[in-house]
Amino acid sequence: MEIWNEEKRIWEDELKRLLCSVGGQGSVIVVTCRSKQVASIMCTVKPHQLVFLTEEDSWELFSNKAFRNSLEQQAELVTIGRRIVSKCGGLPLALKIMGGLLGSKQKVHEWKAIEESNIGDNDGGKYEIMPILNLSYKHLPFEMKQCFAFCAVFSKDYEMEKDRLIQLWMANGYIQEEGTMDLTQKGEFIFDELVSRSFLQDKKVAVKSAIYLSFGHKTQYETIVCKMHDLMHDVAKDVTNECASIEELAQQKASLQDVYHMQMSKAELEQTSVLCKGR
Predict the structure, then answer these.
(1) Closest Cα to residue 30, out of 54, 13, 50?
(2) How far apart are CA 166 and CA 191, in angstroms?
(3) Which of 67, 75, 128, 214 is deepest in the core (most CB within 10 A)?
């Protein structure tokens, strides 16, 4: 499991009791996080810090993405790619994102332009991943930018259903028919592109349940689902102010006049009505 919350009170009062109640004797819970503060709050043994990928492992991960579309590994592209890989600091997400970005570029001058962009080696030599993620977002086609940014309406680690997501993109007018592709086909193309570029991840087939109120029974169905890496979720939140949570509105971290989309539980509906004041 992956944890982001850095509040010790929530861990002591809620999460610890919940997690310890579901495991049998001898069970082990592995927690991953990006925050040393989270590790210090939750750990029962000394945290294990993962090492960065080696240069060759980094190149293999990057090249599998960058040369996926039958793009020939020309000597000049390989040379530029190696230099870009060194800027990624051995971080898998950065390598996959950059590989996905360059996989959509066919020309040497396009690779050089990416290499010369302001990525890595900043902040006094300390590596930062956000410039790479933001750069990759800026190079998305306009429709993909809108579809990706809309995913900020879902909470971190939320399992998004492919068909439902495409329907929401269509309903909001984010995608247009193109050539022989209708809206659904265009949505599927955009979804697959976002997955291949690692903006969405963990694509898999899952079994979901649905309740048909008119018939009063539950049924199960298979669907394709995916998630978004928490850093990519941060990027989505940064590039749009149209999506917000109830908590963000209540704490005035978002302006109601800018928000067009919210996801909420039934328990939050009453709180929403107070916030919206009839709007």
Answers:
(1) 50
(2) 8
(3) 67
Q: How far, in Å, CA of 87 to CA of 114, rounded?
A: 11
Token pair of 181 as six digits: 């592709």
**Which whole-number Å values give the CA distances from 222 to 84, 154, 163, 204, 227, in the listed order?**
40, 21, 11, 10, 16
SS3 content of the chain, % helix, strand, coil (to 5): 50, 10, 40
**Which element (helix H / strand E) includes 224?**
strand 217-227
Tell me the pLDDT tens digit for each residue of 88-102. Answer: 888 898 999 999 999
Do 234 and 166 meet the contact criterion of CB atoms below 8 Å apart?
no
Q: Encoding tokens for residue 227? A: 């998630």
- Distance of alpha carbon 176 from the chain centroid: 23
Which pTM value belongs to this model?
0.71
For 224-246, what is each residue's pLDDT tens digit?
Answer: 999 998 889 989 988 887 777 77
Alpha-carbon gap, residue 61 to 73, rounded angstroms: 14
Among 157, 160, 169, which Cα is nearest to 204's? 160
Give 25-41 pLDDT, tens digit per residue: 778 878 777 677 777 88
